[in-house]
Specification:
Elements (H helix, E strand, L loop, with lengths): L2 H23 L11 H29 L4 H23 L9 H21 L5 H9 L4
Helix pairs in contact: 1-2, 2-3, 2-4, 3-4
Length: 140
Amino acid sequence: MNRKILKQFDLWFPVVVWAYLIFNFSSGRVPVASTVFWQDFAVKKTGHMLLFGALAMLIYRGLLGENIPKKKAAIWAVILAFFYGASDEFHQMFTQGREARVRDVAFDTLGASLVIFLTYRFLQKLPKKVQFVLKDIGFE
């Protein structure tokens, strides 16, 4: 394979795999995390934020690898995570035992925004050794 194809695969395959995992999670029944409503709600919404935060981070990494400027990559990572969250909720409208909620898209977007903000704001403040490792896996 030529280098360009390998680079594209390295940048975007993790995004595709993560998006597929999210799709799979949303294709099945939702287990109850707790019999106490607020605990169940907190666990599920934290899950939304973590899943879509990770998705945004992977998208951000891919965009940086495409030489997109950091600020533009950060904005696009959140926008794309938002749209994937919205499409995931749309998909749930047709999944037995699931329901679509605008609130879930908001939690997805909040998670994506928070992770991207923290990365964008604090990545340069990490110790040099950590920055070196992160740069090696695609974060600058």
